[in-house]
Sequence to fold (116 residues):
Amino acid sequence: MSRKDGRAARRVAVSDLKSWYERYRRLYYVGYDLPPVESVKFSWTVEDPNTHGETDPDVWPPHIEMHEEIRFFPRLVMLVLLHEMSHWAHPKAEHGPRWNEEAKRLGKLGALREFF
Fold:
């Protein structure tokens, strides 16, 4: 993949992903039972081809997987990471009213400011 100036874009490194995870956990998820940072990774095996990441708090070992295809898009990686972390924070919320409340909570904390 290349940028507008023709130079190759840098893929998001696993170390970046883990750093963002720890930062978000410290800023937005204090007191929530999230998986250890070692469980966060990029993968080609994300099961649903229509998603950019996946997690399942009911599956062992705990994991948050980000699809390899989004590695050239740092902001998308960050946003999907927050999304998947929210699944861990509220495992029964799905994408209904409770999920909307979680998005509002993140917005009030400033978590979404850099995306919009």
